[in-house]
Automatic annotation (TrEMBL):
GO terms for molecular function: protein tyrosine phosphatase activity. CDD domains: LMWPTP. Its EC number is 3.1.3.48. Keywords: Hydrolase, Protein phosphatase. The keyword Transport does not apply. Pfam families: LMWPc. Residues 8-159 form the Phosphotyrosine protein phosphatase I domain. The lineage of its organism: Bacteria, Bacillati, Actinomycetota, Actinomycetes, Kitasatosporales. It comes from the Bacteria. This is protein-tyrosine-phosphatase. It comes from Wenjunlia vitaminophila (Streptomyces vitaminophilus). Coiled coil: none annotated. InterPro entries: LMW_PTPase, Ptyr_pPase, Ptyr_pPase_sf, Tyr_phospatase_low_mol_wt. It is an enzyme of class 3 (hydrolase).
Length: 178
């Protein structure tokens, strides 16, 4: 675990915080809980814009999450540059979000916190690391979005576990050390 912090904080960021980022946060939070790391990892989400601030996720996001056993506990919000200091990892859902977040980052250290979600998926090809925005598509676009998020979240969980779980305690069923 990192010195001086109780939590390892991960924030997922998309455009409006109503489709991709709340979906990614729900999936990843569930994986964190299932791995027994919920007392070490805090998961949140935000958007690059505040158009839907305070509103719930898109109904298609909610439906796809529910159909796959994921909870929907979400209120949209806009990412603030001041949040960088309290975050360990800022996970962008596409390259436009990553560029925007790097622009907002107050320090070089904060720029280094920004990563694309699909960069954690070993099956993702270079140049194809975006999770496409499903907003203007049908439910099948939301299902595909979930598939991409789930695939990348496995690798993300491994990367985060390396930061919070002592090396001798890692593994599929590793519990954090007190």
């Amino acid at each position: 675990m990192r010195a001086g912090s109780v939590w390892y904080r991960v924030c997922f960021v998309c455009t409006a915080n109503i489709c991709r980022s709340p979906m990614a946060a729900s999936v990843f939070r569930t994986m964190v809980d299932n791995a027994g790391l919920s007392d070490l990892v805090k998961v949140s989400s935000a958007g690059t814009g505040g158009w839907f601030e305070g509103e719930g996720a898109d109904l298609r996001t909610v439906a796809v999450l529910a159909a796959n056993g994921y909870p929907d506990e979400h209120a949209a919000r806009q990412f603030k540059p001041a949040w960088f200091v309290g975050l360990d990892l800022v996970v962008a859902l596409d390259e436009s979000h990553a560029r925007f977040l790097r622009y907002l980052a107050p320090t070089a250290r904060d720029v280094d916190k920004v990563r694309l979600l699909r960069s954690f998926d070993p099956a993702a090809r270079k140049g194809e690391l975006d999770v496409p925005d499903p907003y203007y598509g049908g439910i099948e676009h939301f299902r595909r979005c979930l598939e991409l998020i789930e695939a990348a979240s496995v690798g993300l969980l491994e990367a985060v576990a390396e930061q919070v779980v002592p090396p001798g305690r890692r593994g599929k069923h590793a519990k954090p050390q007190d």
